[in-house]
Design goal:
5-stranded parallel beta sheet; 4-stranded mixed beta sheet; 18 strands; elongated; binds adenosine-5'-diphosphate; binds magnesium ion
Length: 518
């Protein structure tokens, strides 16, 4: 094979002396959510025909080389029969292998004189063997990064053009490498892509007004939404646990701009962006099935991809049938619940993704579901019940501030409407959040669930007679120090919802009531 190419190389005509030798095209590297501008330098020199790529991870080099070579030829260009060296600078920077192929191909065409203009724009895209331009993951964080560094124009695949336009740059979308060259040389200019309209305000599938009774679980939902507290519903099948959990998104405050961009960036890296509405307008509501793997829940792979905990960033993670999840999978939730982020370590380096979500979970009290049900008899053996509950580890339960029984609603009451609609509750939640913002401030809309121990001492102080109530509860329930602080945070949220600057005895009593043993 090599012998054949050599023979051609010897007979190939020399390039005209006017052809530039080193070309530079700008791309952007991605690793997790980390981004960095990359200069793709291409040198075409005399020598045996070869394409050498440096600065990419090993596995990606081979693929990029073959795709670029075929795409250039199949777009009606000549692949230079000389020594082509491609350097992705800075070389030591960690980067995924995707998204550089458009920049590499344009660099080769420029360096070999087949593209007659310099490329000033940021170029992102993967090439198919036939020269088609394919979208890449993580376009939004990459383009935002470039825009902050002064890049004004980007060239991407059609499917990424809206996402790039939403980042405030002039975005041009293309279906092929040929189309990009025709645009750059002015033969067939493409119009910049319009900024996609924001999606209409979300319509929530479940409204609290549709749920009859269940005043205590609804109270817990309101507290969870206001203070960002994690919540577990326990009760027999068919009592509305799933319905209640789904109503949580309808009472959370609307996404603000910073949250929308942060959540959309994670979706972009996961390749889940909707090209028509690249910026999320609704809080994410992620409900992975109980058969979900470790990898899909917390993320992983190489390069590391975000999992459900990060896709739920700024929104809700709903784990229905919590006891059916594998205990080892549930154990991996501890880090995101505590740190509000998750670090995925891989051979190529670690990546950290945000994971700030409200956890809402639901489970039956026992395998048959009727333990404690006044109407139907539980047929489980005590060992079965113990084994079932042991599937939830103590440390995980300790991080769930609100644990609430969801009883059966009497048949006669089922047709009644709920007392309040979600809209009314959402207004109280927003007012409570405003109190929190004024009290604790800080970046990223911190809520009471985020209070550190010093802040709990400062902001959740209780009066003398309430101290006695708390001391009794700590002793009787053998609350851990973490559990004790969590009760105080929940009490703080109950007070905020009531518009009280003081944490009152009633707020503490409510927090204790909403922390039933499952
Ligand atoms: N309190 C309620 N008010 C109105 N409908 C209810 C209520 N509880 C249950 N339902 C009805 O029962 C169905 C099953 O509820 P679901 O949330 O799936 O129960 P669970 O998750 O506890 O098994 C719901 O779709 C709804 O139609
Ligand atoms: Mg259910």
């Amino acid at each position: 094979m090599r012998g054949v190419s050599c023979a051609i190389a010897i007979t190939a005509p020399e390039r005209p002396a006017t052809a530039r030798s080193v070309a530079r095209v700008t791309a952007c590297a991605l690793w997790g959510l980390e981004t960095a501008l990359v200069t793709v330098e291409v040198d075409v020199a005399n020598g045996l025909p070869a394409l050498v790529v440096v600065g990419l991870p090993d596995a990606a080099v081979q693929e990029a080389r073959e795709r670029v070579r075929a795409a250039v030829r199949n777009s009606g260009f000549e692949f230079p029969l000389r020594r082509v060296t491609v350097n992705l600078a800075p070389a030591e920077r960690r980067k995924e292998g995707t998204g550089f192929e458009l920049a590499i191909a344009l660099g080769i065409l420029r360096a070999s004189g087949q593209l007659r203009v310099d490329v000033a724009a940021l170029c992102l895209g993967e090439l198919a063997l036939d020269g088609a331009l394919r979208p890449v993951r993580g376009t939004m964080p990459r383009v935002r990064h470039a825009a902050m560094r002064g890049v004004r124009e980007v060239l991407v695949a059609d499917a990424n053009a809206g996402e790039a336009a939403a980042c405030g740059v002039e975005s041009f979308g293309f279906g092929s490498l040929r189309g990009v060259v025709d645009h750059l040389e002015g033969r067939a200019r493409v119009a910049p892509t319009a900024v996609p309209p924001r999606a209409a305000a979300p319509r929530h599938p479940v409204d609290l007004g549709h749920i009859a009774g269940q005043e205590t679980p609804k109270r817990a939902l309101e507290i969870a939404a206001a203070g960002g507290h994690n919540l577990l519903f326990v009760g027999p099948p068919g009592t509305g646990k799933t319905m209640l959990a789904r109503a949580l998104e309808s009472i959370l405050p609307p996404l603000d701009d910073a949250e929308a961009l942060a959540a959309s960036a994670v979706h972009s890296v996961a390749g889940l962006t909707d090209p028509r509405h690249p910026v999320l307008t609704a809080r994410p509501f992620r409900a992975p099935h109980h058969t979900a793997s470790h990898l899909s829940l917390v993320g992983g792979g190489s390069p590391p991809r975000p999992g459900e905990v990060s896709l739920a960033h700024c929104g809700v993670l709903f784990l229905d049938e919590l006891a059916e999840f594998s205990p080892s999978v549930l154990d991996t939730l501890r880090e995101p619940l505590e740190e509000r982020s998750i670090t995925i370590s891989r051979a190529g380096g670690a990546a950290t993704y945000p994971a700030r979500f409200v956890l809402v979970a639901a489970m039956n009290p026992c395998p048959c579901g009727h333990w404690g049900d006044p109407e139907l008899e539980c047929r489980c053996l005590p060992e079965q019940i113990d084994r079932y509950r042991a599937r939830l580890s103590g440390p995980l339960l300790d991080r769930i501030d609100l644990r609430v029984h969801v009883p059966r609603v009497p048949y006669e009451r089922l047709r009644e409407d709920g007392r309040e609609s979600s809209g009314a509750v959402q207004l109280r939640v927003m007012a409570a959040r405003e109190r929190m913002r004024r009290r604790i401030g800080g970046p990223g809309g911190r809520v009471n669930a985020d209070l550190n121990v010093a802040e709990v001492k400062r902001h959740c102080a209780v009066e003398a007679e309430t101290k006695g109530l708390l001391a009794d509860a700590v002793r009787a329930r053998r609350l851990s120090a973490r559990g004790y602080h969590r009760v105080l945070r929940v009490a703080r949220t109950a007070a905020d919802l009531a518009g009280s600057e003081r944490v009152r005895a009633g707020d503490v009593a409510l927090a204790l009531l909403l922390r039933a043993e499952p």
